[in-house]
Design a protein that fits this description.
The protein has helices at about 45-55, 75-80, 85-90, 105-130, 135-140, 160-170, 215-230, 240-250, 270, 285-295, 340-355, 360, 375-390, 410-420, 440-445, and strands spanning about 20-25, 40, 45, 60-70, 95-100, 145-150, 175-180, 185-190, 195, 205, 210-215, 255, 300-315, 320, 325, 330-335, 390-400, 430-435, 445-459. By secondary structure, the chain is α/β, with parallel strands linked by helices. Bound molecules: magnesium ion.
């Protein structure tokens, strides 16, 4: 394997011969609002941390440069270290975060420059105190022989592919994994017409990591950047580093067999389609979980918040009913129905979240049918419609504004009653009470006021 050196053939820990540029500077516009794809959750970490783990486990890397969008340092750090395993595996590895550029080419160039700078800094420190450092540490501090440039959105590659890419890079100068296209390939003209019939066997769909000898690719990128600064159109010309290598080093890139599971996450469905072949990556246990967590992603639910409020006058000769529970008091809620201000606020919150209407339109006060009606029945009827529209209740939180009687002794029974009416667990329902500090309508026991917010979800 690649770790064998010319001076020693005994089997020992792999040498850190390479640096890694992990590129995650894009905006993930094709992920349909799911968020930045490299930062999406995967296997207890993120897509980015999963990709990092594969490389770090090979122990071939002295430096990892994570390229993030400008101003996105905190989010990048969080995503990179999201799986605690990364912290452990990165011990003794120089991890640097690099603010990306306007194009992929610019981002990679900045990463390579940062790797060089870090190596120069470590190298000069090692020279200053050679006795303070082990031979191994000094070697690790030297500039890497090779660099792998990898898309942060490709977490499913195997350690074996990483090792093979490093080996081929050291042997041939540049190496890239690729798959032969399955579909017959054509070249189109600007009018969407087939212009050329390509020979499938000579085509390669390239993946990453793309490996290059370090000083040489840095030199190529510098030249490309210089050219780009002179010619504005040149910056858009390179979306791939093998092209830069080809053009500026004049050397060829060796193609090695890629992996079908080494997909670049581009659309939401990509996270739901972890191919079974991924299990051969040596990351086997993790992929069982990956498939579960990834499968949950495209089915991410839609959420809706609902808000409801109510107010009823407190008058003698009526029962004080809140949340379907009668509270002993010398006054009660005035109203067309039983006046349960808490259930009314909840009904409005649920109907509003589902955009189905409100309590007034559902149960018009002028309709005699609802006179002295049990508000629990009204709520149940409204909730049935909300549920029929596919909504689930995530939670419901309420406030009762009441000077007297004390609400707290009744809280548990009110929560239980509401949960029972809605047919949900009590943990999803909470009610708090506030007094009116003896001022205002609430404080003088002239009214009871209620507020309710709910969160509904739907797949
Ligand atoms: Mg009401």
């Amino acid at each position: 394997m690649t770790t064998r050196t010319t001076t020693s053939t005994t089997k020992k820990a792999p040498q850190k011969v390479a640096a890694l540029a992990l590129v995650a500077a894009g905006s993930s516009q094709r992920m349909g609002g799911l968020g930045k794809k490299e930062y999406l959750p995967l296997n207890g970490g993120s897509v980015l941390s999963e990709a990092a783990i594969v490389f770090l486990k090979t122990k071939l890397f002295s430096t990892v440069a994570v390229v993030h969008p400008p101003k996105g340092l905190a989010a990048a750090k969080k995503a990179f270290y999201q799986n605690p395993l990364v912290q452990d595996l990165a011990q003794g590895v120089n991890v640097i975060f690099v603010s990306g550029g306007a194009t992929r080419q610019e981002s990679v160039c900045k990463a390579l420059t940062a790797i060089k700078k870090a190596a120069d800094k470590n190298g000069s420190q090692a020279k200053k105190s050679p006795r303070g450092k082990s031979l191994q540490a000094q070697k690790a501090a030297a500039a890497p022989r090779a660099v792998l440039i990898h898309d942060g959105a490709r977490p499913f590659l195997s350690q074996s592919l990483v090792k093979k890419t490093v080996a081929a890079t050291l042997k041939y100068g540049a190496a890239v994994p690729a798959l032969q296209p399955v579909e017959t390939q054509k070249e189109m003209d600007s009018g969407s017409r087939i212009a050329r019939h390509l020979t499938r066997s000579s085509l390669a769909a390239v993946q990453t990591p793309q490996g290059f000898l370090f000083p040489e690719i840095l030199d190529c990128h510098k030249k490309a950047a210089q050219k780009a600064s002179q010619d504005k159109n040149a910056a858009a010309a390179f979306t791939d580093d093998t092209e830069i290598w080809d053009k500026y080093s004049g050397k060829k890139t060796r193609v090695i067999p890629g992996e079908p599971q080494n997909i670049k996450i581009t659309y939401p469905k990509d996270l739901g389609a972890t191919p079974p072949a991924a299990a051969s990556s040596g990351h086997k246990d993790n992929f069982v979980q990956d498939q579960k967590s990834a499968a949950a992603l495209p089915a991410r639910p839609t959420f809706r918040i609902g808000l409801g409020t109510d107010l009823h006058r407190l008058v003698a000769g009526r029962k004080l009913i809140l949340g379907g529970v009668v509270l002993p008091f010398d006054k009660g809620e005035d109203g067309h129905s039983d006046g349960d201000a808490l259930l009314h606020a909840i009904t409005d919150a649920l109907l509003g979240a589902a955009a189905l209407g409100d309590i007034g339109s559902y149960f018009p006060p002028e309709d005699k049918k609802w006179k002295d009606a049990d508000s629990a029945k009204l709520l149940r009827a409204a909730w049935n419609d909300v549920r029929a529209a596919g909504w689930r209740l995530e939670n419901l939180d309420c406030v009762v504004k009441l000077q007297a009687p004390k609400f707290l002794p009744h809280r548990q029974s009110v929560r239980e009653r509401i949960a029972k009416i809605l047919g949900v667990e009590i943990e999803r329902v909470f009610v708090k009470a506030k007094t009116g500090e003896r001022v205002g309508l609430v404080g003088q026991s002239l009214v009871v006021e209620t507020e309710a917010v709910c969160l509904l979800s739907k797949n």
